[in-house]
Amino acid sequence: MDHSRAPVVEALLDFRRRGDVVFGPPGHRQGRGVDRRLLDVLGEGLFAADVLLLNGLDDRRESQGVLADAQALMADAVHADQTFFSTCGSSLSVKSSMMAVAGPGEELLVSRNAHKSVVSALVIAGIRPVWVHLHVDEDLHLAHPPEPEDVRRALADHPRARGMLLITPTDWGTCADIEGVAQVCHDAGVPLIVDEAWGAHLPFHRDLPTWGMNAGADVVVTSVHKMGSAVEQSSVFHLQGDLVDPSVLKQREDLLGTTSSSSLVYLTLDGWRRQMVEEGERLLAAAIDRAARVGTAVDAIDGLSLMGREVVRPGGAFDLDPLVLTIDVRGLGVTGYAAAEWLRDRCHVDLGAADTCRVNARLTHADDERTEQVLVEALQQLAGRADEIDRAPHVDLPRGPELELETVMRPRDAFFARVEQVPASRAVGRVVAELVTPYPPGVPVLVPGERVTAEALDYLRTGVAAGMLIPDAADPELSTLRVVDEADAP
Ligand SMILES: Cc1ncc(COP(=O)(O)O)c(C=O)c1O
Q1: Pocket-testing residue among 91, 134, 174, ligand 1, by greatest number of atoms within 8 A of Cβ
Q2: pTM check: above 0.85
Q3: Do 154 and 229 belong together in one domain?
Q4: Which pLDDT score, from 0 to 100, does residue 392 have?
Q5: φ and ψ of 171, to 5 deg
Q6: Domain range for 4
Q7: What is the DSSP-derived secondary structure letter of residue 202?
Q8: For burial by CB atoms within 10 Å, which of 2, 14, 466, 480 has the most?
């Protein structure tokens, strides 16, 4: 295929050349109605590119095939049979994919490091999760993705499960053995969905971890805004093989998605694919070299410990994304939360994620010598001035199995049950009715339908005291917790 083409971008240029006058949305009319003060901030180009697909970039019948051609080029670039663009983030793509594989009351294997959007899909669709638990490294306090044998056991115990959802890479750049898990799923005749939200760059350089489509996954979801050059909310899902019906997948997406897709998302997805096919190898090679240099510099800083390939081992990670620099800050006597806040306040450096033990910085093809230097100098300052940072209260970090809670109700039944807001001290033993998700990274510690344990609650409450944020709980301070009313609980 001709990857020098960018059908959506070309359609916008044609729209401008024709001088179309629009009498439908968007009401700002390509910027003519926008307040000058806003235009001065955002630039005229942003609004000028905001054009509907129907009766805008393409006609009412989509007879120019603008979107279809752009999606076909993306599919070709990443070795998929079919690709769908989504303008509602991977939060929606993940839901669409899960609902294309399992329906109300049906079982789906789900890796327990699932993002909250996965749990939302369980609630919305009434799917029964079969949790596949993680391998916890007790020293690092870090959970690695499940291995093929874990999935094989779960499928043997749940032969009616409709498929598996695997999350890889994780927020910390650790990767699962997609090929091994795909093989296990296919032996059982069920599809593998890979939530590869953090993996948009993976198809475009051979030294990066294997990309889901190349590893035999059936559906792969990725957020191009995370590690790529498209704007926020840009997501794609890719399909191959015959275990998932493309028309079902499209209809599930249609059920959830917007009817007013953003052309900014389509344009930037299209431009990203062209850029990566033409220049990805070179740009990503430079990013990989840069990340290695930053890693060497971090290794030389006392008190900081960079996670390296020692985590790649049986029972650990299968692979590691070299562009994710995960740095344990416990040696400085501070939490990751406090370190990240200090770096923002004092150095104006905003990191990717932070938890009790660590922070991460993600490099992309967009970084350069200046940003590399800024990052290294900021981390040196952090280590040199760590005694300025408040010592955080102690967090009761759980041991791995302590976060494997018993699921006693379907997430949907618990979420929509009659509920009570009880003092945290009375929540132990009750069935939680809400998501409780430290964010970022966004992996729920409590999922509706799970029985609350003292260990999980201690971890969350001591975490909040140390700077953990839980935006989705009804009471983000966790003095109280939303639980299923006794009358509705099993
Ligand atoms: C693993 C994972 N899946 C899905 C999502 C949702 O992606 P988006 O922000 O594009 O909606 C995220 C977001 O952080 C994520 O980390």
Answers
A1: 91
A2: yes
A3: yes
A4: 74
A5: -60, -20
A6: 1-58
A7: G
A8: 466
